[in-house]
Amino acid sequence: MGDFYESHPYPPPVDDLDAYRAGWDDGRRRADSHLFWPAQPFRDDRSVLVAGCGTAQAARYALRWPHARLVGIDVSATSIACTLELKHKYALDNLEVRQLAVERVDELGETFEHVVCTGVLHHLADPGAGLRALRDVLAPAGAMHLMVYAPYGRAGVYMLQDYCRRLGIGWTDAEIRDLAATLKALPPDHPIAPLLRASPDFSNRAGLADALLHPNDRSYSVPELLQFIDDAGLRFGRWIRQAPYLPCCGAVASTPHRDLLATLRPEAQYAAMELFRGTMVRHAVVAHRKDSQPSEARVSFEGDAWLDYVPIRLPDTIAVRDGLPPGATAVLINRNHTYTDLYLPIDAARERLLNAINAERAIAQIGATDREFARAFFEQLWRWDQIVFDISDQIQPTAA
Ligand SMILES: C[S@@+](CC[C@H](N)C(=O)[O-])C[C@H]1O[C@@H](n2cnc3c(N)ncnc32)[C@H](O)[C@@H]1O
């Protein structure tokens, strides 16, 4: 398996992270911090492990968190060499890089407040062993960012993987080139066609090899993922972007099934939404140790605590003003959403509340005059991935 990434490092190596660095300011850092730790005051000096860091991810994290201490590990010597080049180019004194397997991460002899592992576990021979090893190095109040493949949106990928296996196609440059040429002749309505058209992963040879020729590749439906997390001694925190998983958001909320879906437990709603949407290709979640204290760290709109939450706008959100529905002054969109039904029309009264968000004021200071109106709107903004909350004023932070 390591051999695969020696010859096909992924993502393809990059040597210029200037634009990436320029995209990270304190506003973005603050929003990111409260996405993972709503209940902890903002900090930018956490210890971060990037597990299976590939060619550039650890260097990106070191750039975006200059005051944090980063450790990047990967089994691939090629990926480590690419990361070391970026470390030297950008003088990343806050980054340590080690050639080490996720399963042996305990050899670092330390714990981390943030563990990032994206696009890795579904490639391991024993993903459970990898996740348990990561869980053991997660600090008690830490937060893990996991991304694994999802099955239904990747059905065409698994068909083509099977096709390649049957033909005995290997990883040489010539074989990958011939495969790329052959894919051009696929029927336009083949289940992989939308991915070939839309995903940057398929636009280069490294991406093609990673998607279609990887010797280990499994995926997790929502119930399988929740079980995977639970089995490793972890607790599901939230989706990195939650609106696609919520039946109150998007087109399904206007169907006759709206009320039926609303009666389901959250986990069953997420599973139903994965089936309804049908094209999810990955799941990205925040997970915590099961033995951390869960209840006080949750955003909730029951009781009165929400009045003290400080809303913070997510950086990739925009207000669109063209072609508005009747009565709307804007339509709010999160540019990271891939589903076009996830837009939130707002009127003038709601826009006044939105414009009062400044990452400092609590909801009580913004819109307490009509409490029910404010509660409903801020909950909506949160569910639609327009905002995160700093709820640390509510909660005594626990030591990491
Ligand atoms: C698809 S790449 C993802 C890279 C990076 N996490 C990202 O999101 O850009 C998968 C990476 O996991 C690494 N990898 C695979 N198995 C591993 C293992 N057992 N331990 C550590 N890294 C591993 C590969 O070498 C490769 O760099």
Overview of this protein structure:
It is a single chain. With 400 residues, the protein is of the alpha/beta class. The protein folds into 3 domains: 2-151 and 219-297, Rossmann fold; 152-212, no CATH class; 305-393. The protein has helices at 2-7, 18-22, 26-36, 57-64, 77-89, 127-136, 155-167, 173-183, 193-198, 205-212, 222-231, 258-262, 266-277, 348-355, 363-367, 371-383; strands at 47-51, 69-74, 95-99, 112-118, 138-149, 234-239, 282-289, 310-313, 317-320, 330-334, 343-346, 387-390. It has a 7-stranded mixed sheet with strand order 3-2-1-4-5-7-6, with helices on both faces. The longest helix is centred in the first third of the chain and has 13 residues, at 77-89. The chain is globular. The model is unreliable at 396-400 (pLDDT under 50). The site of S-adenosylmethionine (SAM) has 22 residues, from strand 2. S-adenosylmethionine binds at residues 1, 5, 10-11, 52-54, 57, 73-76, 79, 101-103, 118-120, 123-124, 210.
